[in-house]
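Worked example 2:
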Amino acid sequence: MINTKIEWAKTREELIAEVTALGFPKELGEAIAKELGSPKAMNRMIGYLTKVKPKSAELIVDEMLAISSEISAWKEKKASEAANAAYNDMLNRGLGTEEDE
């Protein structure tokens, strides 16, 4: 748990440093880090910032929204797959009533 917090804080600071290195305010980096929420998502954003070096805050925010959208779609897909697996299991095993036996 402590390692996770340290990793999150380190990645957050790295993201903020990248944003400020491009000439944008620290508050933009803080808002992006808060919105993305995970070290993996923040690392994706850091990769974008270092490779593309966007010239406007709008481009940075647009990429943040794209990353957030992809993460949301992935979470939704995984939840759907879990629900489908549970439903299929129920169909295969029945509901556990006497009629099923």
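The chain has a mean pLDDT of 90. Residues 57-93 form the longest helix (37 residues).
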